[in-house]
Amino acid sequence: xxxxxxxIKWLGLIxxxxxxxxxxxxxxxxxxxxxxxxxxxxxxxxxxxxxxxxEMEAAGKKFYNAAGEQQDLFKILKDKGINTIRLRVWVNxxxxxxxxxxxxxxxxxxxxxxxxxxxDFHYSDSWADPGQQNKPAAWASQDFTTLKTSVYNxxxxxxxxxxxNKIVPEWVQVGNETNNGMLWNDGKASVNMKNYADLxxxxxxxxxxxxxxxxxVVHISNxxxxxxxxxxxxxxxxxxAKWDVxxxxxxxxxxxxxxKNTQCLANMTDMVSRYGSEVxxxxxGMPVSEAVACKAFIKxxxxxxxxxxxxxxxxxxxxxxxxxxxxxxxxxxxxxxxxKPTVAMDGFLP
Length: 350
What we know:
Elements: H1 2-22, E1 25-26, E2 32-33, E3 45-49, H2 53-58, H3 73-79, E4 84-89, H4 100-112, E5 116-121, H5 144-163, E6 171-174, H6 193-210, E7 215-220, H7 226-238, E8 245-250, H8 257-275, E9 278-284, H9 291-306, E10 313-319
Parallel strand pairs: 3-4, 3-10, 4-5, 5-6, 6-7, 7-8, 8-9, 9-10
Antiparallel strand pairs: 1-2
Helix pairs in contact: 5-6, 6-7, 7-8, 8-9
Enzyme class: hydrolase
Keywords: Glycosidase, Hydrolase
InterPro entries: GH, Glyco_hydro_53
């Protein structure tokens, strides 16, 4: 019996050493590379974009768990099943929020909570979305060749700043809701699809130059609109762009979410079969007043994304769920007026 116990102890020690050394990877220079999370690559992403958090905290906003206890937002979200944080990046924002330093501060907090990270490049000084894709002021007069270089350099600079702090995002978006391209008018897809594809490729190459393991996401809104997605991704493919993941946004109402989710599933399935891409819902939201419907919407969309063949569905992200009291006029959050999560956030729980 003693010999058996001794053998078991030795086997346990060997297993512990194997796990310990396997969790780190030596770089060519010999430093230990620390990954953003102990979660194995491939774990399904249950995410939240909380890019407003530092600005909200500076304005005195506080957050509370369901019991009314004040807590750090990241802790509250983690207890609701969130394992991944998405952070937007602006080039030179007037108030400083979402610049490189601000993104780094938030990424450190996410990593401290053992959360994975998605970085979202807008390639703008402010919001980039289907209605606006404005060049950063510093890039406004650049010719197209220089513009491509600026996209590459900005991507490299931000990711290098993160990497120097041992943060390697698992995913990186090259553009935000680029339904008609980005960096208008040079990169407007309806005007010049080739230019848009070249800009995507510049971003892709910048990501891979710093972090070859990070997956590059091209993100389009209206995830239920198959014709839009075919137009964009056929155009990108034809013109030599590269990507790893197709990202979608979904913002339905309490009355149409089920139909929109069904259309989204058909679109996601088509993206997998047509391009072989993985698919992620990078943004979702619903009016905070529709929390019960929102919970059902989230659970259903997660199930549909997870149902894609060959585990091609990667995850689902709520956009700024913590924006209570209509922060900045936004009414699609998932926290109530007292700063506590609504039942909508239970959609991320098992």
